[in-house]
Amino acid sequence: MKWKVYNRALLPACLPHEVVVNDQDVKSLLRDKNCLFARFTTEFDTPNKTQWWWCLKDDKFDISKLKAKRRYEIVRALKNVNVKIINPLDYIEELYQVTRLAFLEYPLKYRVNITRDTFMQTLEEWRKSGGEYWGCFDKETDVLCAYAICVKQCDCVALSVVKVLPTYMTKGVNAAIVYFLCDKYLNQKNVRYIYDGERNLRHETNYQEYLIKYFGFRYAYCKLNVIYRSDVKWCVNILFPFRRLFKSLSSRFPMFYNIYCVLKQEEIRRTFL
User: Fold this and answer.
1) Superfamily in which the 57-221 domain is placed by CATH
2) What confidence tier does 165 reach under pLDDT thresholds 50, 70, 90?
3) What Cα–Cα distance (Å) separates residue 108 from each residue in 192, 218, 250, 252, 254?
4) Please, are residues 98 and 163 in contact by the beta-carbon 8 Å criterion?
5) pLDDT, greater one: 118 or 55
6) Within 13 Å, how many C-alpha atoms sit on residue 265's CB side?
7) Which pairs count as long-range contacts for 214-217, CB under 8 Å and 24+ apart, including other chains?
8) Given Cys at both, which of 46, 149, 233, 245 links 131, Cβ 3.0 to 4.6 Å?
């Protein structure tokens, strides 16, 4: 099975329902890649409710089945903006500004300080991965006010990135983007599912709840597995009893927030023992 490195963690580079792991291979990769731990899920879409999940939609999207208020918000959003597939190289500056300003709204403890160089590097990585860029444009000014990146993986689609200009958050931009994505991939291309990733411990967001409430996404519950590098495992066990202390200090010390997230992940892992 192939792996990818993200923030010094090993993560599966396959679809969540395809994960098959050999523990010994993972331990060797941790040493070779100098990663702190490997995280993966098993028992995908178990009928039992657990503390770990993937957020996905695996049926057709039918706006007529939504409550009237939610239909209204989507229709209102579609009156404000146009959404279409774009070539990111034609909108480099606009994409960078959306990304930069969106990150400035993040809490300091996990805010990303993105430079133009790091953005260009990320842009190239997404292009190489086959990412499909969707641009969202203000109908009156033609300003690029948001974008999404979707990655097609076999018969599934990952909703990998969504960034919105803060000044457009109240104009229903997210609703317009997700509407077009669901219609394109689920209704027209008949993909198996579109997914927004796993449970997110680092970002304090209600985005997955929003997808469930407005677009019929659901949680596909599963089992969380973590394999630590030997020295990291020792540190996690020592620090684990103090996880609430790290949480209380995280607003002042961003590094403590990173430690807390690892300890919270460990707390969830232990619920499966």
Assistant:
1) Gcn5-related N-acetyltransferase (GNAT) (3.40.630.30)
2) very high
3) 37, 30, 10, 9, 7
4) yes
5) 55
6) 24
7) 214/66, 214/70, 214/73, 214/74, 214/175, 214/178, 215/57, 215/61, 215/178, 215/179, 215/182, 216/57, 216/59, 216/61, 216/65, 217/55, 217/56, 217/57
8) 149
Query: Which secondary-structure segment (H or E) carries 266?
Result: helix 254-270
Both tokens of 68, joined, read: 């009237």
pLDDT of the residue at 54: 98
DSSP letter, residue 65: G
Q: Angle CA(1)–CA(182)–CA(106) in degrees, nearest 5?
A: 75
Tell me which H or E stretch contains 141.
none
Residue closest to 217 by CA, chosen among 203, 200, 197? 197
Average pLDDT along the chain: 93
Q: What is the pLDDT of residues 45-95, one digit of tens each?
A: 999 999 999 999 999 999 998 889 889 999 999 999 999 999 999 999 999
Domain boundaries, the chain: 3-52+222-270, 57-221
Strands across the sheet with 37-42, in order? 3-6, 9-12, 37-42, 223-228
Q: Dmax over Cα atoms in the chain, in whole Å?
A: 57
- What span, in angstroms and rounded, lies between the C-alpha atoms of 77 and 210? 15
Q: What is the pTM of this model?
A: 0.93
Distance CA 163, CA 156 (A): 21
Residues 257, 130: Cα–Cα separation, whole Å:
32
Residue 124 has a pLDDT of: 84
